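STRUCTURE:
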């Protein structure tokens, strides 16, 4: 794989952490903007279509159904990891982004011809949902394959900013374009972002293999995809720190993300009585907090990431407990800033633990399984939609946040030797 010669300069002296250090790697200079544009387009679509479904149908259940359909592909995400290990993560990522562009162009055409309906939106959401959940995992594996060890935390943190800035710029620009010009023109911008992202992804040099592949890797590559998947799951299950990180990812997607992601259109409209612009402010506030967390971690060296994962996740749930009680848009925005900050620290820590523990020829499968656990998010969304209609948003949110807090404490206690001990591999600096 290609790595710039600059990586070897000055390694004999302790370097001051820099958020720009990962950009010394040529491939990263192309992948980061490609990931950025893709994330912007994702956020614009989620906000525009979520608002469209809610306004056209008036149903919170259909809103949560739409949000859930975006994650149907989490069940097959491990197979995307297998494919990435076989054909290369760069090529797979480019094909995925070409798919996004085609599907977005379909919605754009329907909008311009006046034939768009909620049914068509849900159909496209299913097709997009088969592919999109794996994007984060594949891009993470590609970063890990092109990044030296000493820059990995910084690289993953800076990569996380692509999603954070997307929730700011994508949410605000998407809401503005939709409100001012309508869905058709908004989708012209979305299609352009996807196409540009695909072209930039193709500019990343596919990692080369100048040295012979170890026997175990060769056998894995010649094996069937199902055997590859089984080996990946076994690999995770027999590595305690990786198993613990997977459970944390499963838990937060089940009980935390539904409150700050898929339900935001409902919260904006039903709880605070605001419009698309208010929804954009809510989404952007969460993203600003997340961006601050990503930048802070990218500039801090020597972090014990497993301890950070535990602490930040606990505070995340505590902030959500406060958020669901807020009655004004302004106080909700403040709570979402803190929630986003803690969420960023938690999820970057999970990614670093997994990428550090995984050997190179298993990274695609590990991140594929990581994406599969996101399937708990649509389950959490659908359950929340039903509960909200029965007991209301505040009670539902309190149950979710309190249950998540309790389960996170249980994870920390059960894997305390692998996650909290200062000398545990997961806490290596």
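SEQUENCE:
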């Amino acid at each position: 794989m290609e790595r710039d010669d600059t990586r070897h300069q000055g390694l004999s002296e302790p370097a001051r952490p820099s958020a720009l250090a990962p950009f010394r790697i040529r491939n990263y200079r192309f992948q980061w903007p490609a990931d950025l544009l893709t994330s912007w387009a994702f956020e614009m679509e989620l906000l525009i279509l979520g608002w469209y479904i809610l306004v056209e149908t008036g149903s919170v259940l259909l809103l949560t159904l739409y949000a859930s359909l975006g994650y149907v592909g989490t069940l097959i995400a491990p197979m995307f990891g297998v494919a990435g290990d076989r054909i290369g993560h760069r090529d797979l990522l480019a094909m995925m982004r070409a798919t996004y562009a085609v599907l977005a162009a379909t919605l754009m055409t329907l909008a311009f011809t006046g034939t768009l309906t909620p049914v068509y939106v849900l159909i496209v959401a299913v097709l997009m949902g088969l592919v999109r959940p794996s994007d984060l995992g594949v891009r993470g594996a590609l970063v890990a394959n092109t990044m030296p060890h000493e820059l990995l935390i910084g690289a993953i943190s800076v990569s996380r900013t692509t999603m954070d800035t997307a929730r700011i710029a994508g949410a605000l620009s998407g809401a503005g374009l939709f409100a001012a010009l309508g869905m058709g023109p908004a989708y012209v911008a979305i299609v352009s972002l996807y196409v540009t992202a695909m072209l930039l992804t193709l500019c990343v040099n596919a990692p080369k293999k100048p040295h012979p592949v170890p026997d175990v890797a060769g056998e894995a590559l010649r094996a069937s995809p199902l055997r590859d998947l089984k080996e990946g799951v076994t690999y995770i299950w027999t590595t305690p720190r990786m198993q613990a990180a997977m459970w944390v990812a499963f838990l937060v997607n089940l009980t935390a993300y539904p409150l700050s992601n898929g339900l935001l259109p409902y919260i904006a409209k039903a709880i605070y009585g605001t419009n698309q612009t208010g929804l954009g402010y809510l989404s952007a506030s969460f993203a600003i907090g997340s961006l601050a967390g990503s930048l802070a971690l990218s500039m801090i060296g020597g972090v014990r990431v497993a301890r950070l994962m535990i602490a930040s996740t606990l505070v995340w749930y505590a902030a959500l407990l406060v958020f669901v009680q807020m009655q004004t848009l302004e106080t909700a925005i403040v709570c979402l800033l803190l929630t986003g900050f803690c969420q960023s620290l938690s999820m970057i820590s999970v990614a670093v633990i997994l990428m550090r523990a995984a050997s190179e020829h298993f990274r695609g499968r590990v991140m594929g399984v990581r994406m599969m656990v996101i399937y708990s998010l649509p389950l959490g969304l659908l359950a929340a939609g039903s509960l909200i209609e029965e007991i209301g948003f505040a009670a539902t949110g309190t149950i979710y946040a309190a249950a998540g807090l309790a389960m996170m404490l249980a994870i920390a206690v059960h894997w305390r030797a692998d996650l909290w001990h200062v000398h545990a591999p997961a806490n290596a600096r």
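REMARK: The first helix runs from residue 26 to 57.
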